[in-house]
């Protein structure tokens, strides 16, 4: 994981001090990229002890469209508690549904993106087409003297990605988005990692992922998001019969919080170890072996189905999260 340390070094050398919503300053750098060949190993940070179980618990929560910090805790991940219960702006938000609620965060958009259509009632073919695609008629209304139909469907973007990998792997539109502008006002924290694009290579039976992160806390967030992206790509590959290959990680605002500088300086003094391997439990069906497409495992998978083999790491280090 030399690339992680290189990123930290580049931010320290070329970044500049910035103020932000949390009140804790950062050294920030606009635009960064890392690219990992997952055949060479899993992108686990080795210069501190990675909270692997916690990161995987968070990913499993996203897969289940969780919107409560309690659900994440039950999956072994405590990192959402502060955002749910300590951010004054969110506490005062009328959409917050009580203790631990996070609003329509990540997984809700991944699995249940609210899709609406307004179609003229006289356009029978359009209404029929939308209904056939799973939209439900919510109501009929009149606008400027014209009868209109409002239709709704919760779009499972991630499931659609898997379906397309199976049916049309050369498609260059296999992506899901976490940034829903209509819902930014009813969420504890607008999505940081927000665009995931899968790129299957049918001839080589390999699949790659490009991930775009608008804003990344390089001390705490990046190690987690690397685990989650690589584990998600591996899971999607397992369920569709592709070996995980390139994981490319783009960052918009790459930053280091002032109160994490010491943790990162210590890591720069350490020599990274060889990358571990990710193992997904045998019970999660491998499409390449079974020939049975079982996308319901996106919801059925448990944190314990993921483990690292050969993970050698330096002494634990940690630092506070900025809220
Ligand atoms: N807010 C901030 N300021 N940074 C983030 O990275 C971040 N996230 C999520 C939401 N808000 C954020 C939460 N992700 C840790 C790890 C990931 C987080 C938040 C916190 C953390 O404290 N990690 C510690 C301990 C982990 C543990 O033991 O469970 C660590 O040492 O790794 C970006 O997605």
TrEMBL record:
Keyword Transferase: yes
Domain Thymidylate synthase/dCMP hydroxymethylase: 2-323
GO aspect biological process, one term: dTTP biosynthetic process
Biological or metabolic pathway of the protein: Pyrimidine metabolism; dTTP biosynthesis
GO cellular component, one term: cytosol
Broad class of the protein's primary localization: cytoplasm
Family membership noted in the UniProt record: Belongs to the thymidylate synthase family. Bacterial-type ThyA subfamily.
PANTHER family: THYMIDYLATE SYNTHASE (PTHR11548:SF2), THYMIDYLATE SYNTHASE 1 (PTHR11548)
Protein name per UniProt: Thymidylate synthase
Name of the gene encoding the protein in the UniProt record: thyA
